[in-house]
Amino acid sequence: MKAKLIAVGDRAPRWVAEGFEEYRKRLSHWLPLELVEIEPGVRGKNRDVARATAEEGARVISALPKSPLVVTLDGRGRPWSSEELAQRLERWRGQGLDLALLIGGPEGHADEVLARADESWSLGPLTLPHMLVRLVAAEQLYRAAALLANHPYHRA
Questions:
Q1: In this predicted model, what pLDDT tens digit does every residue of 76-133 receive, in sequence order?
Q2: Which one, of 93, 51, 56, 101, lies nearest residue 74 by Cα?
Q3: 10, 27, 49, 147: which could form a disulfide with 86 (CB 3.0–4.6 Å)?
Q4: Three-state secondary-structure class, residue 5
């Protein structure tokens, strides 16, 4: 199983990029993780936000690997504990599909992206900067993989 984190936005702050890279490296032998950055839609005065979100959604859909299991990161999704995420990761591996985790733009995911999702994951009730979500998702994937491997990283 391979995973892609497909995220709207580019130019992550250095500390986010470095943190993401650290967890990507740690994950590499359990779950290879690739970051795919999607150009945000144009926003601003006299710009149609719905159109920008729809354009982002089309770019996200086109970046999906062939026949993936799609999980959106969305505040309206289901919150999972680290242990629950580990159980899901184990189940996803058993399906034999690659994993695509999707992070939307400022207004969230386009309707077509939500319709394509197999599951939706919430990191909790807090509103997080989307760049930080990349780092938190990578760390939680590492934690879940470590749990499955009985690695001491996760100590409850």
A1: 999 999 999 999 999 999 999 999 999 999 899 999 999 999 999 999 999 899 899 9
A2: 101
A3: 147
A4: strand
Contact 50, 80 (CB under 8 A): no
Domain hosting residue 69, numbered range: 3-155
Domain with residue 71: its CATH number is 3.40.1280.10
Q: Which residues are annotated as a binding site for S-adenosyl-L-methionine?
A: 73, 104, 123-128
Q: Rounded to whole angstroms, how far apart are CA atoms 81 and 42? A: 35
Contact 145, 98 (CB under 8 A): no
Number of domains in the chain: 1
Binding site feature residues: 73, 104, 123-128
Give me the DSSP letters along 11-70. ---HHHHHHHHHHHHHHTTTS-EEEEEEPPPP-STT--HHHHHHHHHHHHHHHPPSS-EE
